[in-house]
Design brief:
The complex is a heterodimer. Chain A is mainly alpha-helical. Chain A is 47% helix and 0% strand. Chain B has a domain at 25-76. The chains are: A mainly alpha, B mainly alpha. Chain A: Complex I is composed of at least 49 different subunits.
Chain lengths: 117, 102
């Protein structure tokens, strides 16, 4: 990741893209240079969690725990992680998925995933 | 499963969640309407069992896991469009405890 930032900087490019709303090509493309910024990952993870039917959107923050803070159960937890898979076009193995129980861990996992789109 | 909040998952809990995930994944390969239907039926079934089945009744939970995995195998078959054929068996579940078909 650091190497990538260095390479991009070398070519006079910034790693951080414009806000999501200004990236109409985003959803269409899966090129490597279309790498996700941490800010974008946070924004989209929060959007998915807020969108979950049983969640009160006003309580969702980047460090919220799905079950302790949002009153969800372990089945809801599975559903949220699956919704994140779809949002970022990933398939998260069971072993990893079982560990993702908060926004913070979801953000961490997705922003470190090379295939997240 | 509410009392598992924030705790480490037990082996059998992991198996249940993995089965649940398997159903939701299999549902993705079906038509939009079928998918919604499968998600709704499967979610209801899992939540009902989570509420009704004694957490210590491992024998019965293991039976439900085996049955669920068989149903999941059927659902994964591209020829199976949905749960309509499986639904009957879902609703016949005996929640009282281990039954004669164990």
């Amino acid at each position: 990741m650091a190497l990538r930032a260095t390479v991009l900087r070398h070519f006079g490019m910034t790693v951080r893209g414009p806000p999501l709303a200004l990236q109409p090509w985003r959803s269409m493309s899966s090129h490597a240079e279309d790498h996700l910024s941490k800010e974008e990952v946070i924004e989209r993870v929060l959007a998915v969690v807020k969108d979950f039917p049983k969640v009160d959107p006003s309580r969702v923050t980047p460090d919220v725990h799905f079950q302790k803070d949002l009153g969800l159960d372990s089945l809801d937890n599975v559903e949220i992680v699956m919704a994140l898979e779809e949002e970022f076009k990933l398939e998260i193995p069971d072993k990893e998925a079982d560990k993702i129980d908060s926004c913070q861990l979801a953000i961490e996992y997705i922003s470190n995933h090379p295939m997240a789109g | 499963m509410g009392s598992s909040r924030g705790q480490k998952l037990s082996g059998i809990q992991k198996q249940v969640l993995s089965l649940y995930r398997g159903f939701l994944r299999a549902a993705r390969s079906k038509s939009h309407d079928e998918r919604r239907n499968i998600e709704s039926v499967v979610s209801q079934e899992f939540r009902r069992n989570a509420k009704d089945v004694d957490r210590k009744n491992f024998l019965y939970i293991e039976y439900l896991l085996r049955r669920g995995n068989k149903q999941l195998d059927q659902l994964r078959n591209p020829g199976t469009t949905g749960l309509s054929s499986l639904q009957l068996r879902f609703s016949k579940t005996n929640h009282a405890g281990p039954s004669s078909n164990l």
